[in-house]
Amino acid sequence: MAEHTVAEEYLAGYAQMLLDACSTGRRLTRAELDARRTEGERAAEANLGLRTLVRAHLADARRVQESLTAPQAAGLLTVVEHAVDAFAEGFERAPQLAVRQEEAARREFIDDLLYGGSDLGRLAERAERFGMRLSGAHAVAVAIGPEPYGDGYPVARGVEAAVHARFGNRHTLLATKDGRLICVAPGDQPEVLVFFAKQAYAATNGGRVAVGRAHPGPGGVVHSYEEALNALELADRMDLEGPVLHAADLLVYPVLARDRQAMADLVETTLGPLREARGGAQPLIDTLSAYFDSGCVAVEAARRLSLSVRALTYRLERIRSLTQTDPGDPRHRYTLQTAVIGARLLGWPDASS
Length: 353
Description:
Layout: H1 2-7, H2 14-24, H3 30-45, H4 50-66, H5 70-73, H6 76-115, H7 120-129, E1 137-144, H8 154-167, E2 173-177, E3 180-186, H9 190-203, E4 208-211, E5 215-216, H10 217-238, E6 244-246, H11 252-257, H12 260-271, H13 282-293, H14 298-305, H15 309-323, H16 330-346
Parallel strand pairs: 4-6
Antiparallel strand pairs: 1-3, 1-4, 1-5, 2-3
Helix pairs in contact: 2-4, 2-6, 3-6, 4-6, 8-9, 12-16, 13-14, 13-16, 14-15
């Protein structure tokens, strides 16, 4: 009786529905089944037990049976089966709908958080729902792999599970965005992003991770996220080595690229004569890049280029002859190296043609 009293609210109209259907021998209508599904959803949202509710349905059905003739009662079991099935469907659908709504809210929050498309004060309030405190500084790490990744993918689930198993919540947020894996962590917990980078690199089978600098406030997340994205783009453009890039280590490149016209003038003036070389300028640009990246050690540069030291020396001499600058002379080295960096940033000489 106590169970029936609890469930009574969600059985309104049920007994009369059974009586009407059995008295006429008809099937339950779509509207009646939809009403049962709706009551099932409400019962699930009220955290009632499904077994208790089913027993209450059967108890009402027995009482209805007592008022039916034998021919009318013959179809009662079928009607009850359809009604209870619709109720159970609604009951099971409620948690799934809640999960989808939660996922939609989380996705909207991530979009606003990473793109700054919301009032910052309101954004900070919403962040608490997802275990984040945006009043402090945060840093963002972005991982890419050979294929795009989305929520629910094994890679995304595995990385998130590993980070949470190691650090718990710690006011971090892991998500996917535009096929990339994203980790937002408090700025005073760099170990979280380091661990995320290792896990993401392993899970993406040799992908690449960029870590932005920590910045304060809700807007700081956007700033750090953009720094990480720019670092990934810069790594592709500059052929930077290493699976993990830190935006703090790459600040010189945006500085050099800030005055694009001045950089283009430096590149053209310093490296323009290399176009006269047999095979064009690109092989000699690659030679300078390898030479500077190896610390101006000819043996190491030759190894990186798969050349003999003699061949490398010939190329360096050809560069000196054409540009009137000596890569081995400290007075000329900075100008040449800056011009080579500028060429890679600008896509020179291909972009100039």
